[in-house]
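Lab notes, practical 5.
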Amino acid sequence: MSTTAPSDSALTAADLAEGWHKLGIDDGMTVIVHASLASLGRVDGGAATVVDSLRAALGPAGTLVVPTFTWQVADPDPDHPGVPTADIIARRAAVPTFHRDLETTSMGAIPEAVRKLPESVRSAHPQASVAAVGARAEDITRRQTLGFALGRTSPFGRIHDLGGHILLVGVGHDRNSFLHHAESLIPNPRLKVRRFPRELDGERVWVEALDVGNDNGVYFPAIGREFEQQAGITAVMVGEASCRLIPVAPLISFAAQRLTELLAAEPAE
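Output from the prediction step:
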């Protein structure tokens, strides 16, 4: 099934909204979007048009969420032991402190278009924030712990509880942040330490917080494919992009079990 504009014209908001409805997006849903704008082909108005089309498909009772992660808010020398050199001190001083207007430079044009909307609200995690617009935006972004930033006490946990969906637009499950949420729920997840600067009582300090580790394509793509096959999820072409709409709750249940099995089968170090 495909939804495309005529070959000599760019996709409009109406073309895209038609595609989202065919995919299963409907009024009142809560949807977090991981997307490649380029994958859609030519879009009249670019990322802003994509955002407009998604909001139209979701209606006034719906909520659109995007990841607005800020990897630039991180220690450039996290493994440096002991007293830092002058060069390391200077490089750490150049790292920005998170604020809600900080650009999400690595996440693409669509998250930035949502973040810049006047009515957009954003969670406060220095590295793993989300931005949202719509009926549930304040509710979803209200709480996010510094540790396990995609865990139960986070926008991802709230989207799960609200019966939300994940929209993948021209990207795979290596870009599906909800699989980190699934890993945060299992008994023995892979772990890492986040390190970032914070303002505390008028002083800039470096904070460390424990979180699940990076997958780097080891398990997430295969787990995502397995779930889609089991759940009977099929892709819909919107413009030139292969798109899938995935219900959060059953994905998390499946992924947590599979990750537990796969990690338990790893050879001991």
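Observations recorded by the TA: The chain has a mean pLDDT of 95. The chain is about 30% helix and 20% strand.
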